[in-house]
Design a protein that fits this description.
The protein is an alpha/beta fold and 358 residues long. The chain is 32% helix and 20% strand. An 8-stranded mixed beta sheet has the order 6-7-5-8-4-9-10-13, sandwiched between helices. A 4-stranded mixed beta sheet has the order 1-2-3-14, covered by helices on one side. Strands 11-12 form a two-stranded antiparallel ribbon. The two termini are 23 Å apart. About 1% of the residues have low confidence.
């Protein structure tokens, strides 16, 4: 009977990766005493906050002959995954995920922040690095319009906002001061922000990239140990053309792309609830299919998302039960789950295990 139960667990299909737990090498500990079965599952990604992840498995196991009671426990272990050869992990950072777009105005920064906050609320330790040196927006969206003065020769402590560790050029210069720098100076500044920040035991560092495929993107891929990238686009044709350029750039520099997020997928009228695809339909889905990467999810064009970003409280925190927040949570979990399939970076320090009973 034990072997058959193990087969049920191994053949269980993960809803975020669409692979079986056997294929994912999910760790499980099984013990059966009489009619009671105890099962401990350890996932390689944070525990989903809004999910029926275990319900189908629970039903299958309780339907198995001889099992009347089930103690099913779910935990998470975040490890470092493979980076480009020749690079070293950032101190105290296990995985670096770059959020990119081919063009501006697609909501990439807002998406990056809400993904970071979603992962944080799922129990991971998360930081966000604002890599837009010319136009840093994360301090405003985090509600942290403060100035810090680094000490020479010392690491810069990250600014903590909503429990999220953050760093941005916006913390180092007055908000009205323009950065009139050439490309090499901008690239050097990005490296310093990444390497000189005293990150504290991060499972994930989310990097909010500026749009395009220029100096910052090349510096990121060549000098910073990026684990994987995610592309954000709207459904309109012009945005998709630029998104594909960004996607192809990461492929050329050997940074795996986990998938595409379609932002502003549709608009929902606050008066009548009517949905309208203002920027087109299925554009990102078609691009994902052509480029053979997953479509990670679709996000609506929502006034509330903009309002909460302007107020410095991301929608995931301000309205956690909303459908928009749940969409961000699903995308964040899917990103982390797909990342967990990547080869491990051996030699990295294992994190603490977070356990939660379900």
């Amino acid at each position: 009977m034990k072997i058959n139960v193990e087969e049920i667990v191994a053949n269980y299909t993960d809803p975020y990766t669409h692979k079986t737990w056997g294929e994912m090498k999910v760790a499980s500990v099984l013990a059966q005493v009489g009619t009671e079965l105890k099962l401990d599952i350890t996932l390689g990604y944070p525990l989903p906050k809004y999910s029926v992840l275990l319900e189908p498995l629970r039903e299958q196991l309780l339907a198995f002959p001889g099992i009347e009671h089930l103690d099913l426990n779910l935990s998470s272990r975040i490890v470092s995954h493979m980076i480009r050869p020749g690079l070293k992990l950032l101190p105290n950072v296990k995985n670096v995920i770059a959020i990119a777009s081919g063009k501006g105005g697609v909501g990439k920064s807002t998406t990056a922040l809400n993904i970071a906050v979603a992962l944080l609320s799922q129990g991971a330790r998360v930081g966000i690095l604002d890599a837009d040196i010319y136009g840093p927006n994360q301090p405003h969206m985090l509600g942290k319009l403060e100035h810090i003065q680094p000490e020479n020769g010392k690491a810069i402590p990250p600014v903590i906002a909503h429990g999220l560790q953050s760093m941005s050029m916006g913390y180092l210069i007055p908000p009205e001061t323009p950065m009139i720098w050439r490309g090499p100076m901008v690239s050097s500044a990005l490296q310093q922000l990444a390497h000189d920040t005293d990150w504290q035991d991060l499972g994930y560092l989310i990097i909010d990239l500026p749009p395009g495929t220029g100096d910052i993107q090349l510096t990121l891929s060549q000098k910073i140990p990026v684990t994987a990238a995610v592309i954000v686009s709207t459904p309109q044709d012009i945005a998709l053309l630029d998104a594909r350029k960004g996607l192809e750039m990461f492929k050329k520099v050997d940074v795996p792309v986990l998938g595409i997020i379609e932002n502003m997928s549709h608009h929902i009228c606050v008066q009548c609830g009517h949905e309208e695809a203002i920027f087109g339909e299925l554009g990102a889905a078609q691009l994902a299919e052509v480029c053979e990467v997953p479509l990670l999810g679709q996000l609506p064009l929502s006034k509330r998302i903009r309002e909460q970003a302007d107020a410095g409280i991301p929608i995931v925190l301000a309205d956690p039960e909303s459908q928009v927040a749940k969409a961000y949570h699903y995308i964040a979990t899917k990103i982390a789950a797909l990342l967990s399939l990547r080869p491990r970076q051996y030699g990295a320090k294992f994190p603490n295990i977070i356990t939660e009973n379900k």
